[in-house]
From TrEMBL:
Coiled coil: none annotated. InterPro entries: NUDIX_hydrolase-like_dom_sf (IPR015797), NUDIX_hydrolase_dom (IPR000086). It comes from Streptomyces malaysiensis. The lineage of its organism: Bacteria, Bacillati, Actinomycetota, Actinomycetes, Kitasatosporales. CDD domains: NUDIX_Hydrolase (cd03674). This is Nudix hydrolase domain-containing protein.
């Protein structure tokens, strides 16, 4: 990798690391997930398009708040079924075919959680209808930058959205009947990768398909780190390390050691 590109990635990491530390210090309820960091880091070579996002991360304003102008972060879901089709909804206000979401982070603890909530609200899918992909897990595939017109009725000037797009596989063998959110959604369609409406998302889906993104849910290894908010972690009941737990014993809480 050329030195200038390597330095560029290092700058992105430094900015985002500082953001994470600041957010965790000031808003303990918000858990900025590693997937958000990785997502922007993977896009380090797209800095011309993401220059505004990087500039927003330099400012003290909350980047996910709709009150933060001239741009803020939103989240969308790219749902892929077993026939390698992507769910699109007909946005009632604009008439456009879009992937579900594009909404704001509300009480969600991560950007990924916001994307999951949005797609469930707009389509009636349940969280257990969806799973992460083995290829991407919790990383966003794309960060879309688009302009939003002024809305005098809401007192909002023209601004931009940086939309983090997370990919989910549909778990059922067949797509369930969708219960659309009538206030915002007037229809739904499943489109093949080559017909996805967003050019940047379409290109990245086709590239990811070559790396195995096929719509087929697969079991993956996973671990959970459970913290009680009081300095203790729930430790595995079958861990053989002394002082942690013994086979057959109930899970136990232990104080985290000093760093």
């Amino acid at each position: 990798m050329p030195l200038d590109a390597e330095w560029s990635q290092a700058r992105v990491w430094a900015k985002l690391h500082r953001l994470v530390l600041d957010e965790l210090g000031s808003r303990s309820e918000l858990d900025w997930s590693r997937c958000a960091i990785d997502s922007v880091n993977m896009r380090a070579l797209e800095q011309e398009a993401l220059a505004g996002l990087l500039a927003a991360l330099e400012r003290p304003d909350e980047p996910t708040s709709r009150a933060t102008l001239p741009a803020h972060i939103t989240c969308s879901a790219t749902v892929i079924d077993r026939e390698q089709r992507v769910l699109h909804i007909v946005h009632k206000a604009s008439g456009k075919l879009l992937t579900p979401g594009g909404g704001y982070v509300e009480n969600d603890r991560t950007l990924l959680a916001a994307a999951l909530r949005e797609v469930c609200e707009e389509t009636g899918l349940r969280p257990d209808d969806l799973c992460l992909t083995p290829q991407l897990l919790g990383k966003a595939l794309d960060i879309d930058v688009h302009d939003i017109d002024a809305n005098p009725a809401k007192g909002e000037p023209a601004h931009q959205h940086y939309d983090f797009r997370y990919v989910f596989y549909l778990m059922p063998d067949r797509a369930p009947v969708l219960e659309r959110q009538d206030e915002e959604v007037s229809g739904a369609r499943w489109l093949g990768f080559s017909d996805v409406r967003s050019p940047t998302l379409r290109a990245k889906l086709l590239a990811a398909k070559a790396q195995g993104l096929d719509g087929q849910p697969q079991p993956v290894n996973a671990s959970a780190l459970i913290h009680d908010g009081q300095g203790r972690y729930l430790l595995h009941l079958r861990d053989q390390r002394e002082g942690i737990g013994l086979p057959g014993c109930s899970p136990c809480w232990a104080v985290a050691p000093a760093a």
